[in-house]
Design goal:
By secondary structure, this protein is of the alpha/beta class. Helix 2 packs parallel to helix 8, helix 2 packs parallel to helix 10 and helix 3 packs parallel to helix 4. It is globular and about 45 Å long.
Length: 262
Amino acid sequence: MINYWDDLQTIRRKRPLIHHLMNYVVMNDAANVTLAVGASPIMAHAREEVEELASKADAVYINIGTLDDRWIESFILAGKAASKNNVPVLLDPVGAGATRLRTETVLRILNEVEVSVLKGNGGEMMALAGVTGMIKGVDSLGEASLDIAEKLAREYGVTAVITGPRDYVSDGKRGAIVSNGTPMLQYITGSGCMVGSVIASFMAVNRDFLVASVEGLVTFEIAAEKAEKRSTGPASLKVNLIDELYNMKPGDYEMARVELKE
């Protein structure tokens, strides 16, 4: 049984610090959804301070959307500092498979950092699993599967989270399929990045990373479903999504559509 509400209440009570190394495109929105669920975001990527911040955080979220040599160095420094201090790391491989730089950067981080959760869309994750031609820029051209998630989990020693029309989660032994959400999310840039912030917030209070990932997905996607009902388009959906995250109630989790695989 997954205790969504208990863990959300723990986030709200403890206000864990989530250190984001986050792309410029979504930085503000990611900070807002983190605040809305009750955690405390900091968006810092300067290499002069990332080790200190990562070592004191409750979770570190590395998102490679904005990429250059300086950012890559910061990713590695922050990730190693987090690993050294037993701080969980979520890695979002934005655009993996689209360019050699992005794919090589993700593989380097996976090799040098103790990543807890690897979360990406179907195209990105299939690229990392060796399936090419399924990514256009940062957009997925296809839906993956639980088998792909399981393969990545075992290969890289992570909990793998594949987002899409249905979400697939595996730690290599257990699996989950989450069917919440709305197609309207595809019209909000960085919605996948934002769900990463919510997952990282649950990772900060629950070290069962498969469960934390499912909790983050379900919380974000139920809020999106509720937001859609009172929205007229993508702009109002984003505003209402933040409000719905802030106003989550225990009964909202009755909407969860999750299939667990042991």
